[in-house]
Write a structure and sequence with these properties.
With 287 residues, the chain is of the alpha/beta class. It is 45% helix and 18% strand. GO terms for molecular function: RNA binding; RNA methyltransferase activity.
Length: 287
Amino acid sequence: MAKRENKRKVELDFQKEAERQKRKERAIKKAKEVIEEKEINENIIEGRNPVLEAFESKITVEKILVSKGDTKGSIIKVMSIAKEKGIPVIEVDRRKLDEISNTPNHQGVVAYITPYRYVEVADILKIAEDREEKPFVLILDEIQDPHNLGSIIRTAELSGVHGVIIPKRRSIGVNTTVFKTSAGAVNHMAIAKVTNLARVIDELKDAGIFVYGADMEGDSKSYNTNFEGGVGLVIGNEGKGISRLVREKCDGIVSIPMVGKVNSLNASVAAGILMYEVMKTRIAGKK
């Protein structure tokens, strides 16, 4: 009898633990979904090193919020530099930082910054018109790594891109890391943030722009593609690539030939290769 009771107790404990684990997994999944759906507040920078980097960039830091009583380690340096620069430092409850930050990794410090000024898609087309050039537009479909975005913007500025278009949700925007990685190119590149990429692609097509998506399963190789005329180049997410709806909106899908054993490229590298293919076509057309 005792053995049966012990066995039953073990089974119940196992079931309870399994159910507890399932609840935990559901809670984590729900939290991730909330973060993904949340529109990122680009008026803040969070984390000790990012805030310290912001002090050295062209970003204007308006005020600093620090967790009350948290005055150890690099947070002292943050507060000291802020004081030297005349930036207000406000101590708040840590729960306040949890509420306003974009991620749970604020490390007890959040900086409010002067937001980056985005443009409209029409402004990008006007830039091409003023230069008397066919539009060359880069469309980034949910790029989430700020280093990738910064590198892409840097190459875009060097290869004659008139403007970059990014979505408002599930995409990194212009922050201190992007500023730093772009090596200042952000200051010379028109960037538009839009609600619906698919709708914008339709608008670009109506303006006579041929939209190409980048994908390993492309209809044509990049070196054989005719990039004359107005060009819209779509670069997809680092992991998922181009979303289904955006892909369906593209006029053509272009692939980059690869001969090695690794069958994929970093998003910024792929973008760079294709941007230079477009630039090469345009340079050749001027001769």
